[in-house]
Specification:
mainly alpha; 3-stranded parallel β-sheet; 6 helices; 7% strand
């Protein structure tokens, strides 16, 4: 069971919609529209106007863009959510601190930012929108490096369904800590 469904289970959701799209960029429309436009379209199209909880799992696919461009898209998306769901709680799930080849994400992206500056921006946005954040770093305390490595698995894309299950339960548990029914 994928992470969004584990979160739904953790918060005892009775009405759940998963609009997740893996690999979508904040600025680069890897799909039909950039992230902020996708969020606006989906909340209006699916009439998601009475949500109690919205989670957004973040990634770092837009490395060629500046942090300011990424932040603008994230803020626009959150403004769209809040405009039609003013009472919902929002939890931002931070991007994994590891690259797809299991190396710590320590480099500077072509857009001029690092994961630390990304997390700093995310903290500022979360503060401004009164969002909670769930860090992936804590997941390292639960699972070993070898659980993710080898056979194509990595921190961003685990190698087995069992690891997805454990990650989903961990993240779901963290989201449940912030979510108030």
């Amino acid at each position: 069971m994928k992470i969004p469904y584990r979160i739904a289970n953790a918060v005892h959701a009775t009405d759940f919609v998963n609009l997740a799209v893996g690999g979508m960029g904040y600025v680069n429309p890897n799909y039909a529209a950039p992230f902020d436009q996708y969020v606006l379209t989906q909340t209006v199209q699916d009439q998601i106007t009475d949500a109690n909880l919205i989670t957004i799992q973040l990634g770092v696919n837009d490395g060629d863009y500046t942090l300011q461009q990424i932040e603008a898209s994230l803020r626009n998306a959150l403004n769209s959510i809040v405009s039609v769901n003013p009472k919902c709680q929002i939890v931002l799930i931070q991007a994994t601190p590891y690259t797809s080849d299991n190396r710590p994400f320590i480099s500077t992206m072509p857009g001029g930012w690092t994961l630390d500056s990304f997390y700093g921006m995310l903290g500022s946005v979360a503060h401004d929108f009164n969002c909670a954040t769930v860090p992936w770093y804590d997941l390292r305390l639960m699972l070993s490096w070898s659980d993710f490595s080898g056979a194509g698995g990595n921190w961003a894309h685990p190698k087995t369904a069992d690891i997805y299950y454990q990650m989903g339960n961990f993240i779901g548990g963290r989201v449940a800590q912030f979510y108030q029914n």
